[in-house]
Amino acid sequence: MLLVFAAVGMLRGFQDTKTPLVVAAAGFGANALLNLILVHPVGLSVAGAAIGTSLAQWGMAIAYLWMLIPRIRAAGVALGPEPAALRRAAGVGSWMMLRTVTLRAAIVATVVVATDLGPETLAAHQVAFTFFSTLAFVLDALAIAAQALIGRELGAGREAAARRMVRVMTLWAVGFGVVVGALTAAAAPWVPRLFTPSATVAEAITVALFVLAVSQPLAGYVFVLDGVLMGAGDVRYLALVGVVNLGIYLPVLWWVHDTVSGGQQTQIILWLWVAFAVVFMGARALTLGIRAVGTRWMVLGE
């Protein structure tokens, strides 16, 4: 799977997002078919599922290599490892890991607080966060496009085009966030019925989804600028401000915990989600926006 992830990243760099979709769909279909055959007719049970998944993953990896090796050779890049390239990748990867750790720490801290506030709060939060993750994948499509397009413009030395691309992608992201937010708000009163018979939990889910809906334009702005700076290779900044954002968020989160503990369920989930979807995402928006309006991230190719 690491080889598959690397291949997908390489194809994104070529602005090719269709091929990963085709390979992923084929791999999913092959995985389902292999599991169906190996688990029941062959009788391998759980081992059959593991074998089927492994075979499907190796098939995807081989397909990617078959498509990418000619491109790599055409670009005059060595197929073997190069120490200098490995050092650069390790440097970028370490900063990206720190960025990811700060994001995951914020998510885990929110779950810890939700757990301490009671099972009903945790249940409502889990449903709302599942929707947040799903919508994040939707909005992240724009961030992936921003990575590839900004990398192309900066690599070609087109500063004005890169700046224009940032404006266009930001407008698209915010606009798309408005649409997604409106749909989420419209669904908020009805969605809880699919998850719980409890009126208290259902009401809390609705409140959380309304906060999520309002925050979607902000989330779109954050995701696309995150993609822009990744495409520009500004990962050190992303990692460092990730620490700053976490430092802003954690005190607010604990303040919410101490303030709303023992209160009404709707008030608890309201402030918990205001902290996460507005304060934390707002801190990310501020730190990313400050960087994006400047020029230090714009390293131009020759």
- Using DSSP, what is the number of strands? 0
Beta-strand portion reads under 5%
Main sheet characteristics: none
Q: Could you spell the SSE succession in H and E letters?
A: HHHHHHHHH
Low-confidence stretches: none
Looking at the structure, what is the overall shape? globular
* Mean pLDDT metric: 92
- How much helical structure, as a percent, in the residues? over 70%
Structural class from helices and strands? mainly alpha
Q: What number of domains?
A: 2
Number of helices: 9
Gyration radius over CA: 22 Å
| Beginning-to-end CA distance, first to last residue | 34 Å
What does this structure look like?
It is globular, with a radius of gyration of 22 Å. The two termini are 34 Å apart. The chain has 302 residues and is an all-alpha fold. It is built from nine helices and no strands. It folds into two domains: 2-74, no CATH class; 83-293, no CATH class. The mean pLDDT is 92. This is Putative MATE family efflux protein.
